[in-house]
């Protein structure tokens, strides 16, 4: 009796370790997305990684218009616009981090502190299998 043909299983590349090169690539991608979509990227960015958590801290992220709003005590307006932006751009941020790390992003969060001009992008990754 003949055995049915078995299709070869495609090799799945292992997830990329979250080393310095990966953290740097995430920082660059996040700054690039901000620059392309806001017209201004952060002047400084550093990405930290622990286990399945990636956090990118961004400095000097406010646009001229946002700084003007902060100057007249309208931080709430800056937060509102940024929240809408982050919701709109969520898939773009997720895709960039997934491509760089080789791991699926389970959750994405973003926050900004208008008076200081700092922002953070937080990614929770699936654990490697």
How would you describe this structure to a colleague?
The chain is α+β, with helices and mostly antiparallel strands and 129 residues long. The chain has one domain: Threonyl-tRNA Synthetase, Chain A, domain 2. Helices cover 42% and strands 24% of the residues. It has three helices and four strands, in the order αββααββ. The protein has helices at residues 20-38, 64-71, 75-101, and strands at 44-50, 53-59, 105-113, 118-125. A four-stranded antiparallel sheet has the order 1-2-4-3. A hairpin with a 4-residue loop joins strand 3 (105-113) and strand 4. Helix 1 (20-38) packs across helix 3. The protein is elongated. The two termini are 37 Å apart. The mean pLDDT is 90.
- Sheet with the most strands, sense and barrel status: 4 strands, antiparallel
End-to-end Cα distance: 37 Å
What count of domains describes the coordinates? 1
Q: How helix-rich are the residues, as a percent range?
A: 40-55%
Estimate the global geometry from the Cα principal axes.
elongated
The overall strand count is 4
Element-level helix/strand string: HEEHHEE
What is the overall pLDDT average? 90
Number of helices: 3
Structural class: alpha+beta
Strand order of the largest sheet: 1-2-4-3
SSE topology sketch:
Layout lengths: L19 H19 L5 E7 L2 E7 L4 H8 L3 H27 L3 E9 L4 E8 L4
Antiparallel strand pairs: 1-2, 2-4, 3-4
Helix pairs in contact: 1-3
Quick rundown:
This protein has helices at residues 20-38, 64-71, 75-101, and strands at 44-50, 53-59, 105-113, 118-125. With 129 residues, it is of the alpha+beta class.
């Amino acid at each position: 009796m003949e055995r049915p043909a078995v299709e070869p299983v495609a090799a799945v590349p292992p997830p990329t370790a979250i080393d310095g090169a990966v953290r740097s690539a995430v920082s660059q991608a996040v700054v690039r997305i901000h620059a392309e979509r806001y017209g201004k990227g952060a002047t400084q960015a550093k990405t930290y990684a622990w286990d399945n958590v990636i956090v990118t801290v961004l400095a000097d992220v406010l646009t001229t218009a946002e700084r003007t709003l902060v100057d007249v005590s309208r931080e709430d307006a800056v937060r509102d616009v940024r929240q809408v932006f982050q919701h709109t751009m969520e898939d773009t941020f997720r895709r960039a981090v997934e491509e760089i790390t080789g791991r699926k992003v389970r959750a994405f969060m973003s926050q900004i502190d208008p008076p200081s001009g700092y922002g953070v992008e937080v990614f929770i990754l699936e654990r490697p299998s």
